Amino acid sequence: MRRFFCAAFFLAALPAQADPPSLTLPQGAAISAARSQAATSYGLPIGPWRNDTMARSGLEGARSDTAWRLRGNQQTTLQILAPLRDQIAAAGYILMYQCETDACGGFDFRYALDLIPEPEMHVDLGDFRYLAAQNGNDWIALTVSRSSESGFVHLTTMTAEDTTPATPGNDLAAPQPSPEPESPAADLAKALDGTGRVALDDLVFASGASKLAEGDFASLSALADYLATRPEARIALVGHTDNSGALATNVALSKERAAAVRKRLIEKLGVPAGQLSAEGAGWLSPRTSNLTPEGRDKNRRVEAVLASTPR
Asked: Low complexity bias located where (predicted)?
């Protein structure tokens, strides 16, 4: 068996990588490629590809990617993955998502992953496995596949952190007292009164579906408070998607998600139905480019738009 600290020692020469756990890879595993970024953004997949989209965790911080090749491998992808998964769990990580080939979403899921490219990291579209795990600010994405002669393992690690460099002359180089942050309700009210719209970015939907996850969302509580103090205000909830798929399909999905938000506000938070409407814009109003996974992640949202001005 080969200890991962050999790989970690090699990667230490690269700048500002995320610090991975110590893993034991099968005998014969050799690093085929590695890369590292001191500060970057990545939408780490935490759900299957369904209906031209998938759930991602938007992260910012240090990132490292390492690919291994296992020459002469006779193990299945599950046999390669299982001991690595056990070690990740033993290191204190919580499994957030795992899948196998078709259950992941097949071709679309694989090409939504940001992996070191072929030939260093080969992925058989008919036989691969994936998992994502979290330990505090540290995240892991593990992809395993194989060819007829070799096994392949790809590990992405992300450590969420402040991305502002501390340099001489930068006031952030030393800790400074921070002003007391405003409450979510104050932030939302300021945005609505100032610009007439606000994105409800903490909402979570099932991947590719319109079902709003259970639980409390600070943005919805803040919006309910805003409307309670402004009974004449009317809010249009507008769903938005990325540009994957047909416009009609995306308009329908975005409107269904907006309707789910409206229903939650009415049924759980007591907002009068007359103060809310639900609309869908599909991919017609992006707030950033759809050319990157991070951009597509930001474009999938529900916004609250002030439809009438309280007097």
From this structure: 160-175
- Judging by beta carbons within 10 Å of its beta carbon (0-12, 13-18, 19+), is residue 298 exposed, middle or buried? buried
* Residues paired with 10 in a beta bridge: none
User: How many angstroms separate the CA atoms of 276 and 265, rounded?
Assistant: 9
The phi and psi torsions of 256 (rounded to 5 degrees) equal -65, -40
Query: Residue for token digits 């890879």?
Result: 25
Alpha-carbon 292 to chain mean position: 12
Q: Calculate what percentage of the chain has a pLDDT beyond 70.
A: 84
Give 123's pLDDT tier (boundaries 50, 70, 90). very high
Question: Three-class SS of residue 109?
Answer: helix
**Whether pTM exceeds 0.85:** no
Predicted confidence (pLDDT) at residue 291 exceeds the cutoff of 60: yes
Please tell me the predicted confidence (pLDDT) of residue 7: 41
- Tell me the percentage of the chain whose pLDDT exceeds 90: 50
* Interval 38-61: pLDDT, tens: 989 988 999 998 887 888 888 899
**Per-residue pLDDT, 160:** 81
Query: Is 66 within 8 Å of 31 (Cβ atoms)?
Result: yes
Return all residues near 51 (Cβ < 8 A) that are at least 6 apart. Answer: 208, 209, 245, 249, 253
- Spans of all domains in the chain: 2-160, 182-308
DSSP character string of 204-226? -B-TTS-PBPSS--HHHHHHHHH
Residue with tokens 């001991």: 83
Across the strands, what pairs with 302? 239
Average pLDDT over residues 206-235: 88
Inter-residue contact 223 to 250 (CB < 8 Å)? no
Q: What is the DSSP letter of 296?
A: H
Closest to 11 measured CA to CA, from 49, 47, 63: 63
* Residue 222 C-alpha from the chain's centroid: 24
